[in-house]
Amino acid sequence: MILAAAASSASHLLPLSLPATDSHSVPWTVLFVLTLLTLLPAIVLSMTPMVRLLVVFHFLRQALGTQTAPSNQVLMGLALLMSWFLMQPVLHQVDQQAVEPFRLGQIDGWEAIKRGVEPPRLYMLRYAKEQDLAIFTSAAALPRPARPEDLPLRVVAPAYMLSELKAGFEIGAILFLPFLLIDMIIASITTSVGMFQLPPVVISTPLKILLFVMANGWNLLAGSLLKSF
User: Fold this and answer.
1) What burial class does residue 126 get, using C-beta atoms within 10 Å of its C-beta: 0-12 exposed, 13-18 middle, 19+ buried?
2) Has this prediction a pTM greater than 0.85?
3) What's the pLDDT tens digit per position in 153-162?
4) DSSP SS3 for 153
5) In this predicted structure, what is the pLDDT of residue 105?
6) Which of 8, 90, 98, 100 is deepest in the core (most CB within 10 A)?
7) Residue 227: its pLDDT value, please?
8) Side-chain half-sphere of 122: how many Cα atoms within 13 Å?
9) Euclidean distance between the first and the last CA atom of the chain, given in angstroms as a whole number
């Protein structure tokens, strides 16, 4: 799914860049697109909401006890589509500030990159926690900035990933609690009636799935995750 998105992005960017007036810009455009294709999976996983979404989805699967259902590919696809939906305003800003001027030949490639990273940097800065930013600012031996907006991308990106991992684990822990309560109740009941030959998880798993489906769990989870951004 990520490779398909990368191919789609490349096919979108390449025609936009070819009409440049300078004939030497074509090899640079090809180099830029190939570099983008190589780095795109890492960019998607580190600079979008995909980190938080994948963590929450895997916590949900463990809480339900379904092991491999939904599969990793399904969860990855859902997280990718939701990330694309959430990142639409940022992508629009990148297109207006960097891609469109570069296509028209108003700016060169380096200037397009500088302009293009600004909207994602400001987006990540919005969700990066102060303590995470402080860790990487100190590790980079940078002076304390007058405002968070002055921090470079090499500080904001890893701080954003740490903050998203923490947020994902917090949501996953809260999501895990009601299913854990069902497991405890079923284990207590089966033990009290002397049903030792049947593992409690065999009974609790279908009950948890039934409860999740009856509560329209996927809809509630998706809505809550979208509102968290």
Assistant:
1) exposed
2) no
3) 788 888 898 9
4) helix
5) 74
6) 98
7) 84
8) 10
9) 23
- Residue 65 exposed, middle or buried by CB count within 10 Å (0-12, 13-18, 19+): middle
Q: How far apart are CA 119 and CA 122, in angstroms?
A: 5
> Which of 100, 143, 92, 80 minimizes the C-alpha distance to 120?
92
Using CA atoms of 74, 77, 82, 83 in order, give the dihedral in degrees to the nearest 10.
Answer: 140
Alpha carbon 176 to chain centroid, angstroms: 20
Tokens 């009974």: give the residue.
203
Give me 152's structure tokens: 């470079």
Q: Which residues contact 148 (CB under 8 A, 6 or more apart)?
A: 125, 130, 133
pLDDT at 8 over 50: no
Q: What is the DSSP string of 26-85?
A: HHHHHHHHHHHHHHHHHHHHHSSTHHHHHHHHHHHHHHHT-TTSS-HHHHHHHHHHHHHH
DSSP symbols for 87-146: THHHHHHHIIIIIHHHHTTSS-HHHHHHHHHHHHHHHHHHHS-HHHHHHHHHHTTPPPPS
Rounded (5°) CA angle 203-207-222? 140
| Residue 79: both structure tokens together | 């997280």
Closest CA to 29 of 114, 116, 105, 115: 105
